[in-house]
UniProtKB/TrEMBL annotation:
Keywords: Fatty acid biosynthesis, Fatty acid metabolism, Iron, Lipid biosynthesis, Lipid metabolism, Metal-binding, Oxidoreductase. Fe cation 1 binds at E81, E112, H115, E196. Fe cation 2 binds at E112, E166, E196, H199. InterPro entries: Fatty_acid_desaturase-2, Ferritin-like_SF, RNR-like. Its cofactor is Fe cation; Fe(2+). Belongs to the fatty acid desaturase type 2 family. SUPFAM superfamilies: Ferritin-like. It comes from Rhodococcus triatomae. This is Acyl-[acyl-carrier-protein] desaturase.
Length: 319
């Protein structure tokens, strides 16, 4: 049995050059299978009416058909999409705006922008949430931007993070659509989730190629991201309250984060069965295994606590 050997790390420029053929192939793949769609086609415009500034009536809570949980999830999802300029800047800085990389960053940004457009139009036209509070939250969140937990994040960190984040967003959007109890909202969020899935595949394939080119470097980046993961909406107003509501009602919780996001991606990369890691990669893999075992225990504990809380809520409602 041979002893794994340490490899000299590749520079950012070397990684970009080595990965460029994969970026070109996946850009072409994405453009060939992604579907064009128009946000205005998804909005029930006949439900719209003027607000007070135009001689109509301002928003009132009684006008919303959504539950508190659905409202919290929709606001969280929209504000996350609103922060697009921060994400664009991060990708542009850690990738490059040259060649296929730059074309992808522009295309991804344009596609993501549709998500914010359609979500805001739906919420305002149907009067699902307070539009003044929504605008105030948008201003605050975009001014703060994103808060990365990783110091010295680089290309590999970005590829790993957006792989997991796009999949997490897909899960959250899809479950939010179901929680709304409105076929219009469900159709919108299913459309957005389909986009997020294609974006995830692009990044997952690039990060998988990076694992083949620089196994230890990429494993370290993946470990850094997984073990310090934060959703991009962390700096939103009321994020923690809304996240708790979403977790309590099964829109996005620890179990989904582990079983529907982290685990399937790691399986796709064959992370725990690879034979090309050197000493650093092996150490990362060991730490990851311990971390995921602990995360599974946390998820089980949360599920039990949530079930008890929901049972208490149901008993109070019945009594």
């Amino acid at each position: 049995m041979t002893t794994p050997v340490a490899r000299h790390p590749l520079t950012q420029l070397q990684l970009l050059r080595e990965l460029q053929p994969t970026a070109e192939q996946n850009l072409e793949r994405h453009l060939s299978i992604s579907k064009e769609w128009n946000p205005h086609d998804y909005i029930p415009w006949d439900e719209g009416r003027n607000f007070a500034a135009m001689g109509g009536t301002d928003w009132d809570p009684s006008q919303s058909r959504l539950s508190e949980t659905a409202k919290a999830a929709m606001i969280t999802n929209l504000l996350t999409e609103d922060n697009l300029p921060s994400y664009h800047r991060e990708l542009a800085e850690n990738f490059t705006l040259d060649s296929a990389w730059g074309t992808w960053v522009g295309r991804w940004t344009a596609e993501e922008n549709r998500h914010g457009i359609v979500l805001r139009d739906y919420l305002v036209v149907t009067r699902a949430v307070d539009p003044v509070a929504l605008e105030q939250a948008r201003m605050q969140h975009m001014t703060v931007g994103i808060d990365s937990p990783l110091e010295g994040a680089n290309l590999l960190h970005s590829l790993a993070y957006v792989t997991f984040q796009e999949l997490a967003t897909r899960v959250s959007h899809r479950n939010t659509g179901r929680a709304c109890g409105d076929p219009v909202a469900d159709r919108i969020l299913a459309r957005i989730a389909a986009d997020e899935n294609l974006h995830m595949i692009f990044y997952r394939n690039l990060c998988g190629a990076a694992l083949d080119i620089a196994p230890d470097q990429t494993a370290k980046a993946i470990g850094d991201v997984v073990m310090n993961f934060q959703m991009p909406g962390l700096t939103q107003p009321n994020f923690r309250r809304n996240a708790v509501l979403m977790a309590k009602h099964g829109i996005y919780d620890l179990r989904q984060h582990l079983d529907d996001v982290i685990s399937p991606v790691l399986r796709k990369w064959n992370f725990f069965d690879r034979t090309d890691f050197g000493p650093e990669g092996e150490q990362v893999r060991d730490r990851m295994a311990t971390f995921l075992e602990d995360l599974d225990a946390q998820a089980t504990k949360f599920e039990a606590s949530r079930d008890r809380a929901l049972a208490r809520d149901a008993a109070r409602a019945a009594g």
